[in-house]
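ok here's Disease resistance R13L4/SHOC-2-like LRR domain-containing protein, seq below lol
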Amino acid sequence: QTLYVDNNKLAGRLPVGIGQMESLQHIHAQNNLLTGSIPNSIGQLSDLVDLRLSGNALTGEFPVEFIELSNLSTLLLDGNSIEGTLPREFGLLTSLTVLRLQKNSLFGSIPDLSELRNLEQLHLDGNAFSGAIPEKVGPQSLRELILARNELIGTIPDYIGHLTALKDLRLGVNRLQGTLPNMLGSLSDLRTLQAENNALTGPIPRTLGLLPLLEVVHLSHNRLTGTVPNELGEARMLEELRVEVNDLTGFMPSAVCTLNEKDEGLSVVTADCRGEAAKVNCSCCTQCF
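and the structure came out like this:
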């Protein structure tokens, strides 16, 4: 029922005959030297719950046969060179709780995964996904939504504000436009917000100050305007605030700088505060641009 061969130096291809091992429930073959494509016969493992092939050198197309694995809970394929698109039917694998496909060569649009009612982790960063973020990108059970370093366009959907279990939201290094939704202030469990290196405009939402557990805010390299909101000083757990290379003006609020005075408080503050051409007057910045 179980195959554990993590962290060895296994080389070569996954055997085509693996699909005949019908009782397999767990396959762990991470951090090896496996090459070639994932055999289509993997779709015959109807009892498979856990498939972990991260950190190999796998290539080929993303197997459409994965949609046959109705009991699959964990799928880890990150750190390979797998190509192709995610089939729309992937959204029918309602047992999935963890889906990590980061650092591959996947492309095309991200399918609607909102019907994956048990999904907690969705990591698609470091691929070549394009198009808009789906209006309903995931279910309300989602805790980690990592879509950074792709080619996504369009706006950040307001629907993300309804993902109230979200702890980690990373959308940086894409081509997103529009404003940061005020609905982000509804994510009371959010620890990390990263949306750097996009083309976002408008103000930093004052509602971010409503997030009591917020630790990291990276919004640099956008086209944000207005001032840094005083309300951010209410995010008492804040450790990093990066807002450089924007069109922000005015002063870094004293309420934010006060967080910098705590022993384990705000340790990284960056803004456009360098020299006579400084756009932001910042007395507590750890680095000026």
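fwiw The chain has two domains: 1-149, 154-289. kinda neat tbh
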